Amino acid sequence: MDLDAKVTAIKGIGSKTEKLLNRIGVYTVKDILLYFPKDYIRYQQPAAPYEITSEGIYAVAARVAAVPFLKRTGRMELVQTKIGDGNGLLELVWYHMPYIKSQLKPGQLYIFYGKVKQKGKIFGMEQPEIYTPQQYQEKMQTMQPVYGRTQGLSNKMIAKAIRQVLNEMTLVYEYLPESIRKKERLCEYNFAIRQIHFPDSMDELILARKRFVFDEFFLFILKIQMQKEKRFVIHNDFPIQNETIIPYVLSHLSYSLTKAQKRCLDEIIDDMKQGVVMQRLVQGDVGCGKTIIAFLCMALMGENGFQSALMAPTEVLARQHFETFTKMCEEYELKRKVILLTGSLTAKEKRRAYENMQIYPDAMIIGTQALIQEKAAFCNLGLVITDEQHRFGVRQRETLAQKGLCPHILVMSATPIPRTLAIIIYGDMDISVIDEVPKRRLPNKNCVVGTSYHKTAYEFIRKEIKKGHQAYIICPLVEESEELDAENVTDYTKKMETYYNQDIKIGCLHGKMKPAEKNHIMEAFAKHEIDLLISTTVVEVGVNVPNATVMMIENAERFGLAQLHQLRGRVGRGSAQSYCIMVDHAQSKTSKKRLDILNRSNDGFLIAGEDLKLRGPGDFFGIRQSGDFAFALADIYQDAEVLKKASEAVKELLADDFELKKEENQKLALMLEQNNSNKMSL
């Protein structure tokens, strides 16, 4: 099967399914092979009906207690029955599956697998899978993949398509040099691609995942190091001769910079005064004050007659930076033009922005990826700042830098990464760390609670909103999943609308929305047109909403600690006390131990370090925490040891054969040539 063929080359996939697959980023046969599972079903020991006392995903062993009943209502066909005995009964229903009626025999023992829901005092299952005891015993020996999907696209459909490709495709060539594979004990690529989708056991899955994680890190670091080694010292064409604007602005601020901010600013200015181009990463915890550093650097460039550009990851954040910088220029009487360029501007607004970029050689230009489009031409670009740059990828950062004549590059990241890992990930940059939070900010008050705390939490949120504040509720899923037992944004929004009964203005936000729709919701929340925002982690890089004081995170046990810390950084950005309520649905010893770290500390770097100590090599289920980087599977925290090994392998490879001319490295060189993005390649 041709891996570059359109996904419709797979039997059973027509134009309708193709459109659904396109929505999750699958366009070719290769794409679907690289669409890795986000979780796996590990079938548990069956329970008896009387043992079911709460909602969740269960395997239930029981005899059919009543003759299945087929009911037709208009176009709807449903089959109903009951299972169990006098000790406990469950009601079962199947929609659009009339054949179930003849399949189930009263009095016969079956295993029913699916999600149990409670309606009043009765527990029931909808659309459960049906197995004989022998069939289920075989299932318990396997691990079934669970894929991210969109409405209309079933997990079974994706798995079936991938299985077909695996059965029909010819072997993919192994591009990793054998010497590296043997030293790092990495499995062969074709074995890995099969086991990552349909693992024979946990051991095989760990082997397969390790291979892909190593590959992702290895290729990422290899590209960075090859670019770094090829790059000679680049002459600086933007000399800093005037430095009066920074002390002037600092003297007019209503607060003083922290020692860490001052140290970071000094390091940046010192870089920009040298005869070579700056390449520096500013790493600072949530709320440490990186924005004022960016403003001061851009103001300094303007004072010396040069343009500067700041690229933000979202339109809403870009607009907020634009409004903040415009206000500061007016407040401090800086005669500096601030230009906004985003994709949602009208054609007329874009033309005006392009014109201004040519008219004002000392302008501050703020935007999104629209800054790297072909039409965006700078006339005197001396400094490029990327905010949360790892969300763009190395290539986009370089594309923006190429818009000028070797401008200075400043990268700002709020992701707390231990320094040892940051040196590897940002191998081509110098690093500054802002490890203090301004004293004017009150630390979050945190609590970790069980699901029994829900009503108390809802009323606490109501109380805060009545004070005039706003709140977030974070859920891990967009829609209900038959395979995963976790809260989803869609149903949770409806539940909150019913609970608060129009007393509170509620909004819903998730990553599957169109960009314009997401921007509209975030802007409405920022303007306080929404009191309570139910969202996925898409708010992790959102706007600054100082009025938001409460965040409740459902299924907190499913998130990495660094991501939880990033999320709670969305509140506490104003003068009022803020609160983070983490709801632990698992209530296991492991989840309690991990979440207690967040409960005790607001220090992102300490949290990242502690999380590294706690995570084991097989701890990779749930939501990855460092999804900021363009990796499909790798996580810089839980895979820190693999990251270090990959870095060492790259160092040895380039020391021995920098241009990859040796025969054993030819396939790797060819693969790099074909694959210029961070995404894994076949």
Largest sheet: 7 strands, mixed
Quaternary structure state of the chains depicted: single chain
Helicity, as a percent range: 25-40%
Summing up helix and strand content along with how strands pair, one would put the structural category as alpha/beta
Query: Residue ranges: pLDDT <50 for 5 or more in a row?
Result: 616-628
Overall form:
globular
Distance between the termini: 13 Å
pLDDT averaged residue by residue: 87
Based on CA atoms alone, the radius of gyration comes out at 27 Å
Total E-strand runs: 22
Share of residues in strands: 15-25%
The tally of helices reads 23
Topology:
Layout: H1 15-23, H2 29-33, E1 39-42, E2 56-63, E3 69-73, E4 76-85, E5 88-95, H3 100-103, E6 109-119, E7 122-126, E8 129-131, H4 133-139, E9 143-146, H5 155-168, H6 178-184, H7 189-197, H8 202-230, H9 245-252, H10 259-273, E10 279-284, H11 290-303, E11 307-311, H12 315-331, E12 338-341, H13 347-359, E13 364-367, E14 381-387, H14 394-401, E15 408-413, H15 419-425, E16 430-434, E17 445-449, H16 454-466, E18 470-474, H17 489-500, E19 506-509, H18 515-526, E20 532-535, E21 548-553, H19 561-568, E22 579-583, H20 589-600, H21 604-614, H22 640-656, H23 666-674
Parallel strand pairs: 5-7, 10-15, 10-16, 11-13, 11-14, 12-13, 14-15, 17-22, 18-20, 18-21, 19-20, 21-22
Antiparallel strand pairs: 1-9, 2-6, 3-4, 4-5, 6-7, 6-8
Helix pairs in contact: 7-8, 8-22, 10-11, 19-21
